[in-house]
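INTERNAL TRANSFER SHEET
From: sequence group
To: structure group
Subject: 1-deoxy-D-xylulose 5-phosphate reductoisomerase

Please process the attached sequence and return the structure record in the designated field. Keep the field labels unchanged so the import script can parse them.
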Amino acid sequence: MTIFEDTAPRTCRRGPVRVAILGCSGSIGTQTLDVCRNHPDRVQVVALSVNRSTRALVEAQREFGAAHVAVADEAHARDAVLSELAEGCELTTGADAVTALAELDDVDMVVNALVGFAGIHAGYAALRAGKALAYANKESIVCGGDLLMPLARPGRLLPVDSEHSAIYQCLVGERPEDVSRIWLTCSGGPFFGRTRAELAHVSAEEALAHPTWSMGAKITIDSATLMNKGLEVIEAHHLFQQPVDAVRVLVHRQSKIHSMVEFVDGVVKAQLGSSDMRAPIQYALSYPERWEATARRVDWCAEDPFTFGEADEATFGCLALAREAGRVGGTLPCAMNAANEVANESFRQGTCGFLDIERVVARVMEQTEVERVESLGQLDEVDARARAAASAVLREVRP
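Return from structure group:
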């Protein structure tokens, strides 16, 4: 099934879209709230969740009047600040409570801004409940695309990643069978041009200094290793029904072309814009309409020349590992993702080196017995085993 509306015409919504924002205190969540703030007549915030940032949750609930809120981390279920929630607001706690927000009757669209594998249950629940799903949680598609994609009704699964939003926009009105290749753009991260010898000594602080995008810590480290781009290759494979090797990574340092689609006749369509995540977030909320810009506009006459280059998979081996996981499929992408999440966190905490992230992922992939994806419960088990294996490898590489 295609994720695009298979029959035009485009129809406008009646009344504001009622949204649940899962992970409202993170980078994507706060920028989603900014879009909602800019379009109060078009968006109604119905539900909000955080992991543990209860102060941010209360502030957002009081500003937007959300009727339902959830705190995932039970350790923060009794934070004193929660007493400041507006009267009548329903508060629930625990991971299952976050997932339940995705199924509420008074929610039209779920914005899944949760980080990592943990977001898969909410995304699955939203699609099962027939909600529109605007998702920034790429790990859910990477790990569970075989489960989620069959649930995606046309026009109801809307990517928030800038690259996949760009591809989606380029493909509206086109036939999937006419696609020859997808050009997935990549900034190259903060270490573009470095050698492996140089990468062996970089710090987490250096890796967190992304040249063009403001993102959360986990995804910023993934961008530095190019694992983020590898995850996006697998994501594009699932979303747009293209072979992994038909998704070509293109280094574009200026981050103004957000991705391109090449068709069988040699024509290439590209989506351009500012390096501002509010643009793809707004497109997901407004689809099939377009609303007035929240992100800044670009003066193209004043822009520097564009450059393009090949991604260096020999130096940044995480990209090559992700491609291999995508080719093999099954449960291997889930194991790869789990190992990466563990190693990524270890690097941020200063307990392993930058290149150890790649080493850990490679070792866990070698140890994984690949199975066909059959259920969320199975993926939970694969994720847990891979995390344990990654922790064991880290104990070996730590000084």
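Handover comment: Residues 6-11 have pLDDT under 50 and may be disordered. The chain has 15 helices and twelve strands.
Transfer complete.
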